[in-house]
């Protein structure tokens, strides 16, 4: 917890859960990425946290932006960035959305199949496209496999199709999985990208860019390597597979940019047991759950650090759950969470590293609960 967040939370009591984001941390994270990969442009993944204050700060710092929709593109433009700093990185787009993005000045689009190329050729003639390839997400908390990307062997045909339709076949992209804790995982993906570059060159198509994707982690309960380690591993892999002819590179950090900048304050609504057995696990219900912003606890992939005022006391296994009348709204049950035995109804808890993928996953009005309140300081 930063002193700024601590002082803000101490200044007033909130009726419901609240996320507080410290812009100083975002600024530090951007600087770390820029220093670790100085020749690589940063395209912040807007979906991680699209708060206007976050976007304005990053725009002022010189960041580019990875957008998943026209709505995000408009948010970035409103924050002060120009269209040439925007990538429409979603591989699943309506043709009218491609046309609107192009009208707004965006000319860099992700594709992963011939059909998407054909949409872009009609709606955004002459635009630049990069083809996303499937990537092994081993080592990641969220592998992101199957839904996005094509096999590397298919990417060359997709890019050639784009070239023949008058688009600029600009490059290749991949994603090594969200919350990727192994810096070496970029090596295999870059080997595939290098092979695609060579085969395209043999067909007279000269690619220029490799989108290294996101995957850069934030610290939850497990230790993670520093950004510097990722930069060194990626640069080594680039030199290994591309030699001295290094392509233009971009990265799309989201979680790694804003995850550790935010903290949620929540309240304990109920503590109970399901039987009178002595060793029965306690159930701790909070006023926030999966539908209030903690959707990434699904399958217990992300285990957030939780702090309480009783942290020096004995801890016991607890199941954590949210307040809604949905049986899926259980956060940690397969591997119960250790919480102080002295924790009581009405106590406040601090859920750390919640700056990414919380407000964007918060449902509006489910069971009558309001969306997650957010304050940016």
Automatic annotation (TrEMBL):
Q: In which pathway does it act?
A: Amine and polyamine biosynthesis; putrescine biosynthesis via L-ornithine pathway; putrescine from L-ornithine: step 1/1
InterPro entries from the xrefs? Ala_racemase/Decarboxylase_C, De-COase2_N, De-COase2_pyr-phos_BS, Orn/DAP/Arg_de-COase, Orn_de-COase, PLP-binding_barrel
Has keyword Iron-sulfur? no
Protein name listed in UniProt: ornithine decarboxylase
Q: Which family does it belong to?
A: Belongs to the Orn/Lys/Arg decarboxylase class-II family.
Q: What highest taxon heads this organism's lineage?
A: Bacteria
Q: Which UniProt keywords apply?
A: Lyase, Pyridoxal phosphate
* Cofactor(s) for this UniProt protein: pyridoxal 5'-phosphate
Q: Name one Pfam family in it.
A: Orn_Arg_deC_N
Top EC group = lyase
Q: Does the keyword Lyase apply?
A: yes
This entry's Enzyme Commission designation comes to 4.1.1.17
What this protein catalyses is: L-ornithine + H(+) = putrescine + CO2
Q: Which residues form the Orn/DAP/Arg decarboxylase 2 N-terminal domain?
A: 25-258
